[in-house]
Specification:
Number of helices: 3
Order of helices and strands: HHH
Helix content: over 70%
Shape: elongated
Distance between the termini: 45 Å
Structural class: mainly alpha
Number of strands: 0
Radius of gyration: 18 Å
Length: about 120
Amino acid sequence: MNNDKERELRVDEWIWVIFIILSIFNIFGDELEKKFYREKDISSKNLSKSIFTLTVLVSFFIYVYLSYRKYQVFSRNKAEGKNTDICEMRFFASILVVIASFLYLYCQLTDKGDVNPSLV
C-alpha cells in the first residue's frame, strides 16, 4: 500500500514538472505573440498558436489521467464498502475539469482570432 502511495506521489511530482515546463512554453508563446503584434510577423503568430495548442492538449491529457485516478480511488472505496461521498464528488469535479479542458482545446483549434487561449 505504501509503495502505491509513493508511486502516486512520484507521478504527481512529474505532473508538476510538466506543468512548470508548459508554463515556460506559454511565456515563450506570449513573447512570440507580442512580436506578432509589434512586427506583424506571421511566423511568430503561427508558432505561438502551435505552442498554445500543444500546451492545452498536454493539459487535457493530464486532466484525463487525473480523472482516471480519481475513478480508481472511487471504485476501490466503493468495492471495499467505504463511504464514497467525497470520492464521488472529487471524481465528478475531475470529469467537469476534463470537459472544460476539452472545450478549451476545441476553441483553441477552431478559433481564428486571438492566439493566446488566456485572452478573452
